Amino acid sequence: MLVIFMLSNRDPVAMGFWPLGVTVSVPFGAVVLVALVVGFLAGLLAHLPKRFGAQRRAKRAEKRVAELEGKLAAAPAHT
């Protein structure tokens, strides 16, 4: 699918780099692909801290559950 998109959008687009004053002609498909990759990486970087925090909380909760289950198993049974 990506190859079809790239081949269908080969028209050149002028890309200007503001601080350098350089203009480059790049295929439109490449511009879109780079934008998608940059957006994906930005989203990934924004998501990773929350993901790692959730993993830490889950590990702490699992340890706490194991600790409480151990205490429950060691406690005398009331009948």
Summed up:
68% of the residues lie in helices and 15% in strands. It is of the alpha+beta class and 79 residues long. It has one domain (2-74).
Secondary structure blueprint with pairings:
Blueprint: H1 2-8, E1 12-17, E2 22-27, H2 28-74
Antiparallel strand pairs: 1-2
Helix pairs in contact: 1-2
Rg estimate, integer Å: 27 Å
* Average residue pLDDT: 91
Low-confidence stretches: none
Biggest sheet architecture: 2 strands, antiparallel
| Strand order across the largest sheet | 1-2
Report the end-to-end length measured between terminal Cα atoms. 66 Å
Structural class computed from helices and strand pairing: alpha+beta
Shape: rod-shaped
Helix content: 55-70%
Given the structure, what is the number of helices? 2
Beta percentage is 15-25%
